[in-house]
Each structure stands twice: as C-alpha cells, then as structure tokens.
Amino acid sequence: MEQSTEIKELLAALCNVQGEMPTMPKDKQGYSYRYTDFDTIVTTIKPLLKKNNIGFMQSLTMVGESPAITTRVFSQSGQYIQDTVTLPKVEMKGTTAAQNMGASITYMKRYALCAMFGITADEDVDGTIPPISGKQSETVSSFEKKRIELESLITSYDVELHGDPYALAKQTLDKGSEADVTAMIARTEKYLNAKGIRI
Prior knowledge:
This protein is an alpha+beta fold. It has two domains: about 1-130, Enolase-like, domain 1 (2-Layer Sandwich), CATH 3.30.390; about 130-199, no CATH class. Helix content is about 50%, strand content about 15%. The protein has helices at about 10-20, 40-50, 95-115, 135-155, 165-175, 180-195; strands spanning about 1-5, 30, 35, 55-65, 65-75, 80-85. It has a four-stranded antiparallel beta sheet with strand order 1-6-5-4. Strands 2-3 form a two-stranded antiparallel ribbon. Helix 3 (about 95-115) packs across helix 4, helix 4 runs antiparallel to helix 5 (about 165-175) and helix 4 (about 135-155) runs parallel beside helix 6 (about 180-195). The longest helix is centred in the last third of the chain and has 23 residues, at about 135-155. The chain starts with a strand and ends in a 5-residue tail after the last helix.
C-alpha cells in the first residue's frame, strides 16, 4: 500500500466512516452465497464520505505487463492511501477481449473498494461449502463468468440501458438462472447494437 507523507487526518475520517457504516444488505444471489453488488456499496458509502470530506477513485493501470486497478482514498487536504491489485484473467466463450477485460474490471473494483473501507459484502461461507471438482466445478465457473459478463454490461452501459432494459437486466442478474443470464446478455447486446453501440 502507498500513502502520502501525512495521513493522520485521513485515518481519523476513515474511523468515523467505519463507525457509521451500516451493515450492507447481502441481497444478491451468487452460485452458493449471497453478496452486495457494487452499485449498492457505492450508494451506501457516498453520503458517509461526503460527511467526512473524503472521497475515492479507481483507475486502470499496469503492473509490469498485467492490467491492474488502483484504488485511492483521499481527503480534501490531499492526504491519501492507495493500493493496486492485478486483474484476474477472465475468458468467456463467445466474447471479445474487450468484454473479458470489462468483466474483470467490474469484478475487481468491487473487491478492491471493499478492502479499502473494511466492508464485508459477502457471506462468510468458509467451511460450509463442500469441495467441488470435475464437471460441477466447470458449471460453477461458467455461471459466475456469465454473471460477471452481464454485470459488466449493466455497469458500462447504465445510461444507454436506462429504464426498462436496465431494470430487466438487473432483475435477471439478481435472480436468473444461467440460461436466463445467457439469454439476457444476448438480448442486451442486441438492444445496444440497435442503438448504434458496438460491443
């Protein structure tokens, strides 16, 4: 982790934020766990950050030859802490390199932001899920990758999908089966293409 020379003011503000931080609603369903989505996390913390005069930014960078996300938390006076994490490699069937990158960015931004603010956004499932292997493991991986891909589309094109298309895509992401999510990806891409947006 990197930091400015002085961080006393920033750390005091972060203590206040964490002291006022509500429990995040884990109302989104993963394959075998529940979690808080990125939009809910940002919406929840923004008023607390404003109240304590701090903010955050996340930017794409490189670590050697690997793409990475840098998350910086800063105060009005310029004090900051930041950390960088390399992106996981995501390869989804039938998608472009840009789509895979977008999915990886969306996925890691959520985890990096939670780490910086000490947010627990996933159920603690350690020791409660039996080990998986073979075909079952491949099924889990496939479904999660599809969910990441749809979440990336929703996050990247939220303005273009405003209204019913956005709401329907979010509902499918939250409650849909793998087949539902796969169909919604195709439907969303078709909708965006019809508006002249090439995915």
